[in-house]
Specification:
It is a single chain. 15% of the residues are buried. The mean pLDDT is 95. This protein has one domain. The protein contains 2 helices and no strands. The protein is an all-alpha fold.
Length: 72
């Protein structure tokens, strides 16, 4: 999965989690609220994974560019 996919899925899970939490609050359903909290955390983790993949990709590209520029 690409970093863009991870970020998009993460955002979707984070939003869905917040909606579930709100629905749980409105209906006084603690199970739904807890499920939403878990889904929100999962979304945050997916976004962090996407950001990490992007940072690693950029670092590798920069290292490759630096090696090409040094004549090696």
């Amino acid at each position: 999965m690409s970093n863009i996919d991870d970020k998009a899925r993460g955002t979707g899970n984070e939003i869905a989690g917040k909606v579930k939490q709100a629905a749980g609050d409105l209906t006084d359903n603690n199970d739904l609220k807890a499920e939403g909290e878990g889904q929100e955390v999962k979304g945050q983790a997916q976004q962090a994974l996407g950001n990490a993949k992007e940072a690693i990709g950029n670092a590798l590209k920069n290292a490759g560019d630096a090696l090409k520029g040094s004549g090696n």
